[in-house]
Amino acid sequence: MDHQALAREMRGLREQVSGITDTAVAAADGLLIAADTADSIDPDGLAALAAAGLGLARRTAEATSRGSLDRTVAYGSHGCAAFYAVGETALMVVLGDEGMDVERLHRATQPALRRIDLILTDRAPEPTPFAQPHKAAEGV
Fold it and tell me: How far is CA 9 from CA 19, 38, 61, 76, 125, in A?
């Protein structure tokens, strides 16, 4: 897996959508793959919680005949956490402050999620418009 390409995708979202504070990519089982988070965030814990939350949301969508789930958002008093399915085997979590435009985030994530899926499955993604890699903590 190309961790630099994954880091570029995560950094690219921050550049496209103001208000993003942290990002992480995890396997569907909750194991951290990569994170670009503040020191105050436990990326392994975030990955595990995101996987549990996304799994519950997926089951809810299926049980209520709403189709396959692509995303869920949790809103808090200081911002929100958006959880996105990356294919069937992974997820991305994006944390944002109170000023983040969630609709813009949803639009910006769609092409990034496709590229992240290609990176995670070792298929060559199309080149991204983000030239500079950003240092991201690599998980397992």
Answer: 16, 17, 27, 25, 11
Does pTM surpass 0.85?
A: no
**Three-state DSSP class for 96?**
strand
CA dihedral 102, 15, 27, 137 (to 10 degrees): -140
User: In the predicted model, what is the mean pLDDT of residues 7-36?
Assistant: 94
3-state percent breakdown (helix, strand, coil) of the chain, nearest 5: 40, 25, 35
> Residue 104 pLDDT more than 70?
yes
Tens of pLDDT along 109-118? 999 999 999 9
Q: Are strands 79-86 and 90-96 parallel, antiparallel or unpaired?
A: antiparallel
Strands (E), 1-140: 20-27, 32-36, 71-76, 79-86, 90-96, 137-138
From CA 107, how far away is CA 7, in angstroms rounded? Answer: 19
Please, are residues 17 and 108 in contact by the beta-carbon 8 Å criterion?
yes
Question: Taking 80 as the threshold, does the pLDDT of residue 96 lie above it?
Answer: yes
